[in-house]
Amino acid sequence: MRVDGKIVVYADDTCLLLSSSNWETLRQKTELNFKKIIKWLNIKKLSLNFNKTMFMVFSINYTLPPFEEITLRDCSIASNCNCPKINIVKRIKYLGLIFDCNLKWNIHINSLIVKLRSLMFKFHILKHITSYHTWRIIYLSLYQSILQYGMVFWREASINVLKPLSVQQNSLIRICQKKDNLIGNTLLNYVEFNVLPLELLYKKSTLMFVYKKSYFFFIKQNDKPFGKDRLCNIKVLFTNTSFGQKFINYLGPVIFNALPIDVKKNIFNDQINIKKKYK
User: Which has more pLDDT, 269 or 208?
Assistant: First the structure.
């Protein structure tokens, strides 16, 4: 099925991504492509659940579209039209992440803080009955697994939004080490407990993401002469706005290229071997 956009499918969740330079063109494009999808579903003897279908507009300019719903018109009578309608929403939860129309991530991070806060009491109880090694396993499996989910996307939020989450993590590390709230240097606490703080955890997650995708972006050495420290760099997808520099397709290569040359060489060679293996 051909659409004027991109379809993203994961399990039973489907997204149709469209873009345009103005609201009216976007509305027309959305209606046209939705009709194509409904027609394809009818051919396959399937139906679309309009109660669970939503439409959200992304804009960094805080401007809202001049319409509140998308009507998939299939009749010529406007007065008694019973054609399906899709309501516009300002936020939506998709695959465990809460997206808002301005991509600010405030709502998702606040929801994450509340979810992780419910674990604090359990950790208070368990600190009296578990060993140090068991503590770390519990922390990684219960707390960090939730914390780092989708981090490569929502970590672009502002420092003020992320600060409460960082403070919560610091407090939990002290609980795990059976320390009072203000005892010990924060960074040393992480070193002693052998886990990563929020910022370093983000860099680790980003590097793992880039490692999986890096063979798509490696700079060809014969394109132009590079110094030795840039031979194993990957392409940085430069953007025209500072907003675009908050995303993984920009920050990922930037963080990767800042690694020591020996580390990048080993990763580069690994990716070359993987590429040869699957050719």
Answer: 208
